[in-house]
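Worked Example 4.2. Read the sequence first, then its structure tokens.
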Amino acid sequence: MYELINFAVELMEKENYQNPELLPSQNPEINPTQNPDINCDQNISINSSQNPTINPTQTPNWRQNQWNLFKQTVLWDKLNDRQKKLCQHFLQNL
């Protein structure tokens, strides 16, 4: 989940430069270092070492489970459709 969230944040930083509200560096709500809900070190439910349902070594459906959790994060509503597809593609290739 850490990799997926970081990928989304980096993607948003790269592509949303024209809209500061959609830049994690400018918006604490979508910045994992400032929002504990999307910080894997602070939120046990999205930490794959703490949550066995999203751990690749413990669950065969970990990708789908991570995707389902990712869709519940605040990041989901801030991503456009193309960015969501890129995130899904990224997760499928992990």
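Now turn to a second chain, presented in exactly the same format:
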Amino acid sequence: MADSKQNLKIPEKRFSKAQEYLYANLLWWAFLAVLAVISFFTCGGAWDDVTSGVMEFIFVIMGGGFTMVSILDYLYEEHFLRLPTEGKK
């Protein structure tokens, strides 16, 4: 009886590589939005040159950089990285 229960496996829901990168980017951009709100109030709660520079750094440099690296990594994994298949030796 115990052997028959061990053989029954529930299939795990796996995300595709594109979905994994999309969710990672959504989480990163949500974190950056929270960081931007905190930074706005840390910079005095007024929109001036300092706040503008901080927001530009957060969204352009950190957000754009993360997204660009995610896209390049996805393209590398999909097109250039050849992993050996599991069944072949």
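Notes for the reader: The chain has a mean pLDDT of 87. The first helix runs from residue 2 to 7.
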